[in-house]
What does this fold into?
Amino acid sequence: MKITKRQLRRIIKEEKARLLNEQGNYAGGPPSMDAKTADAAQLLQTAYYNLDDLVGGSTDDGIVDDVLMNMELIKNALHILGVVL
It folds into this structure.
């Protein structure tokens, strides 16, 4: 099975965030972030990267616009949590 450069970058970012989270220093988030908030932020990051992969492979402009709008909402939520993509 082959993976694209985009998928590899996403996997590396997710793994880095997971490792930093396990060390108690969540990637991009404040050190005081509680475990539930950190877990929610990590799920939002994963959803963002999954949607980004879908947009890259889609040819339906209507779907792409909807996905991009939802990606922006997720990005805003992560920004509020103090997480940088």
Observations:
- The chain has one domain: 5-81.
